[in-house]
Amino acid sequence: MARRKTGPRAWIRESYRTKNLPSSKRRWEVLYEDPHQAFKKRTKGGFRTKGDAERWRDEESPAAKHSQRLAWVDPARGDATFQTVAEEWLGTYTSASGKKAGYSQHAQVVLGSRSLVRTHWGHRRIGDITHREVTAWLKETTATRSPSTARKNFYTFRRVIRYAVQNGLILRDPTVGVAVPGQRDLSTQQAERVIPTVEQVHLLIANTPEPWGIYVRLAAATGMRPEELCALQLRDVSAACDQILVRRVLVKDRTTGESIYEDVPKTRRSRRTIDLDDFTADALRVHLTTQQARAARWFAAHPDRLPADPSLLPVVPGVGEFKRGAKQRKTGTDVDWLVFNRPLRHGWFTMRYWSSLRTSASLPTSVRFYDLRHFHASWLVEQIGRPGALSIVEIAERLGHASTKMTLDRYSHSQPDRDKRNATAAMWAAPNVTRLPVSAS
């Protein structure tokens, strides 16, 4: 009992297994008492010299940590590989927001066959990972991949390491102090981003084959995110087709590959009601009428797929499965393969049509479907101050932003071809005010 008061003991000795070998092959070991196992005697061996054994006893043993009033972790607990610990952590992970996408993203990093984390760290003993190695890996990853990819992989890696620390597998967190690559400066992003013009947006809509023209039109007319558009159901559209309720998103479960609905939008402000202009409301009404007739014929042939509540059917239907790598099916068109109880997958739409649509509108390859949201926000911001225009607060609410700062910083774009030289000329355009004469030099 006295040892419990004074703490664990440690001493060195020559290994009995090598004592009969030549001196060059003899080894030393440290015999110590494990405070986590009722002071059971344990052995740390393999030291080439007596000095090495003494150094470990005086710096790393439980007795040394006790004298320094520091925590001690059994080195044997760090023998588990990083992959083993990562999969154990993933089994306990739950997203704070309840979003399935959060788990799927971590699962892709932990379980993905081509994951940057798994391929580099999966086989490593977790107790051997050092701060220097983590810093070098992140620097190399940032040099070959985008900053967002490097951050995503590092954040999952750090969560696993912290789980190991909290569960006593390792003593120190090697990710502490590692500089995470930041996001690109917003001004740089704005300078590189190409926003479609009104004429180009009209071309995109006109060249999109039915029934997906409404998908492109709603993106430009409402600024909704792709995952919000794909999740729209008939119950989310008002009877007059002049309002849309945003209540959920459609995400891909990366562990199963299936599309699932989540009633947890991106932010709390993402739950919103969006008013549609008369032209978009008319287009949506025509779309729903046409699809209703097609859906009636399809469900007549597939009665087992009709849901109990028809209002749960998607506004924009998807297509049936087809083999990956086959750009076109052998029979029929995409319209012939519509599945009216399945929502459109944004990834399928962009893979199938976006490249040709960009070309038809003379847009560069850097323009993404998501830039239609930028187009919508930029157009609304540019209208501020004009009759009938929305205020910046109303624009932020329409886009589902938590604050107006996000709207102005990320979605208001400067027009390089606009004459900014006379932006203040109106303040001098008062009666009896004339321009000063230019004196001859």
From TrEMBL:
* The keyword Ion transport belongs to this UniProt entry's keyword annotation: no
Q: Which InterPro entries match?
A: CB, DNA_brk_join_enz, Integrase-like_cat_sf, Integrase_catalytic, Integrase_recombinase_N, Phage_int_M, Tyrosine_recombinase_XerCD
The annotated region (Disordered) lies at 42-62
Every copy of the Tyr recombinase domain together lies at 191-424
Pfam families in the record, alphabetically?
A: Phage_int_M, Phage_integrase
* Every Core-binding (CB) domain range: 80-165
Give the compositionally biased regions (Basic and acidic residues).
49-62
The UniProt keywords, alphabetically, are: DNA recombination, DNA-binding
The answer on whether this UniProt entry bears the keyword GTP-binding reads no
Family designation = Belongs to the 'phage' integrase family.
Q: What is this protein called?
A: Site-specific integrase
